[in-house]
Design brief:
There is one protein chain. This protein is of the alpha+beta class. It has a single domain (11-184), classed as Methylpurine-DNA glycosylase (MPG) (3-methyladenine DNA Glycosylase, Chain A), CATH 3.10.300.10. 11% of the residues lie in helices and 23% in strands. It contains three helices and eight strands; from the N terminus they run αβββββααβββ. The protein has helices at residues 19-26, 110-116, 129-135; strands at 30-33, 36-46, 74-79, 83-89, 98-108, 152-153, 164-167, 181-184. Strands 1, 2, 3, 4, 5, 6, 7 and 8 form an eight-stranded antiparallel sheet that branches. A hairpin with a 2-residue loop joins strand 1 and strand 2 (36-46). The structure holds a DNA duplex.
DNA sequence: CTACCGATATTCT
DNA sequence: GAATATCGGTAGA
């Protein structure tokens, strides 16, 4: 494997843009993974050095190496020691970033999904990033795998602006107020907003010129 | 709605 | 060695 963006195959040209731009384009997309098909209803963007809330903010470490790898790969990390969370790598060439898949609606493989989260209502099966990883069967070998074109179908035609809502990110201490959480307006499978108990307000984004 | 706590890999000092 | 964490489940107001 190489590090040079110029050598990347470009299997996912749509994902070679900042994560905050790609994220809303993933809403309504259908993801097929681990025997389950999911319609994405909530996502969240994480970029690199300019985003203090991102795992990639302080450069490449073993855990976050995938965020620096080719767009279209799955970045899968262990949250709080027990939940596997899935991201789609997305960034401009030479940079880093990913879109966290926060929630979705199971549209196929319902029995398998239910078996992976016994006792859950269908609505709650993938309502939250840890739950979403669980119903898709994410595990330690998931990190770094490349999505096939047949595994992620972007919404076509694209969703209207009106169908998409946006707001602050969930569970972050730093830069939580960057409005990079996107969800489908009115969708029941979107997770409840939870602010970090000690979230610090984001500094002003762009000082006027 | 809010608050707490389990659980542990990763990162920082 | 200590602090942190892209969370989820539950308890209680």
């Amino acid at each position: 494997m190489t590090d040079w963006p110029e050598a990347w195959s470009g299997a996912w040209p749509e994902l070679r843009a900042p994560a905050s731009v790609v994220a809303p384009m993933l809403l309504g997309a259908v993801l097929s993974w681990g025997g389950v098909r999911l319609r994405l209803t909530e996502v969240e963007a994480y970029e690199d050095v300019e985003d203090p809330g991102s795992h990639a903010a302080r450069g490449r470490t073993a855990r976050v190496a995938t965020m620096f790898d080719e767009p279209g790969r799955i970045y899968c990390y262990l949250s709080h020691g027990l939940h596997r969370c899935l991201n789609v790598v997305a960034h401009e060439p030479g940079r880093a970033g990913a879109v966290l898949l926060r929630a979705g609606e199971v549209v196929d493989g319902l029995d398998l999904a239910r078996s992976r989260r016994p006792g859950s209502s269908d609505r709650d099966l993938a309502r939250g990033p840890g739950r979403l990883g669980a119903v898709l069967g994410a595990d330690q070998v998931t990190d770094g795998l490349m999505l096939g074109r047949d595994q992620l179908g972007l919404a076509d035609p694209p969703l209207s602006e009106q169908a998409i809502s946006r707001g602050p990110r969930v569970g972050l201490r730093l830069a939580a107020d960057r409005p990079w959480r996107y969800w489908l307006t009115g969708e029941r499978t979107v997770s409840p907003y939870r602010r970090h108990a000690r979230a610090v307000p984001d500094p002003p984004a762009e000082p006027p010129a």
